[in-house]
Design brief:
The chain is α+β, with helices and mostly antiparallel strands. The protein has nine helices and eleven strands. The chain has a five-stranded antiparallel β-sheet with strand order 1-2-3-5-4, sandwiched between helices. Strands 6-9-10 form a three-stranded antiparallel β-sheet, covered by helices on one side. A hairpin with a 3-residue loop joins strand 9 and strand 10. The chain is globular.
Length: about 280
């Protein structure tokens, strides 16, 4: 068991910053520490359990952080051997703690659209087939996992397979995508901040809207309107239909992960999205 005296996160922080103090923060996952240095500045130390996610997050900060200056943490220390990062803190409150229906929530969605639009537009590649082919195979792999676990009917499996066919046969724009773009990873303060880049990679641009579409916007369409006002362009009819196919990925991954993690809320979300899909 790792104790504070031999914690790689603390060792990395002390080597880079000197004396630091750990601040208890129940909102953080166990693998992340909130730290304050002797001069009062805040930092986060994060240790990944999977090397692939560590590599992806580090690459995201180093390769694409220039498109998000002022909105994302900076890497001030790293230890590849233990998959540990030391990051500056971006000031602000997590948007998932903001009162639902408040002006602050709507403003956060506007800012989220604006910042994501800047990233997408700076990294966009128009209408390629490779992205759709890869996503279709990924969806089929999830369908197979769900089938082996007995999580859906034959008709539901066929419905999901139809969406895999749609993805495989659609040309779509690609861009650097966050892929967990939702209020728990947004910070609202004097400026708009983002965190958690372990999923970030080049993917279908429209896929970055899927978690918002299926987890937030159904119940609050005004937030969708605010988001795309910031983003700069609404979805056209073709793109909206494609977003429905990304809902198939959202549904089946939630079903499988909910089952594997015994997470009833996640399983229920997956079944709700699956029921919506045509």
């Amino acid at each position: 068991m790792i104790t504070l005296s031999d914690d790689p996160r603390l060792n990395l922080a002390r080597g880079a910053l000197g004396a630091v103090r750990v601040v208890h923060d129940p909102m953080l996952p166990p693998r992340v520490l909130r730290l304050v240095s002797a001069d009062g500045n805040e930092f986060f130390a994060k240790q990944h359990s999977e090397r692939g996610r560590y590599t992806r997050e580090l690459h995201a900060y180093l390769a694409w952080g220039s498109h998000l200056i002022g909105h994302v943490p900076r890497v001030v220390g790293r230890q590849d051997r233990t998959c540990t990062l030391l990051l500056t803190a971006v000031p602000g409150v997590r948007v998932d703690t903001v009162a639902p229906g408040s002006p602050e929530e709507e403003q956060a969605h506007y800012e989220a659209g604006r910042v994501l639009g800047n990233l997408h537009h700076a990294t966009s590649v128009s209408r390629t087939g490779a992205v759709g082919t890869e996503l279709a195979q990924r969806l089929r792999d999830w369908i197979a996992r769900a089938g082996r676990a007995g999580l859906m009917s034959t008709i539901e499996g066929e419905r999901l397979s139809h969406h895999a066919d749609v993805l495989a046969n659609t040309l779509m724009d690609s861009a650097v995508c966050h892929l967990d773009y939702q209020p728990r990873n947004w910070l609202l303060g004097d400026d708009f901040g983002l965190c958690d880049f372990e999923h970030m990679r080049r993917d279908a641009r429209i896929r970055d809207f899927a978690r918002l579409e299926f987890r937030r916007w159904q119940a609050a369409p005004n937030l969708r309107t605010a988001f795309f006002a910031g983003y700069g362009e609404p979805l056209n009819d073709t793109e909206q239909r494609l977003l429905e196919s990304f809902g198939a990925i959202e549904a089946v991954t939630a079903l499988v992960r909910g089952h594997e993690q015994e997470d009833l809320a996640l399983s229920t979300h997956g079944r709700t999205v699956l029921a919506r899909l045509a």
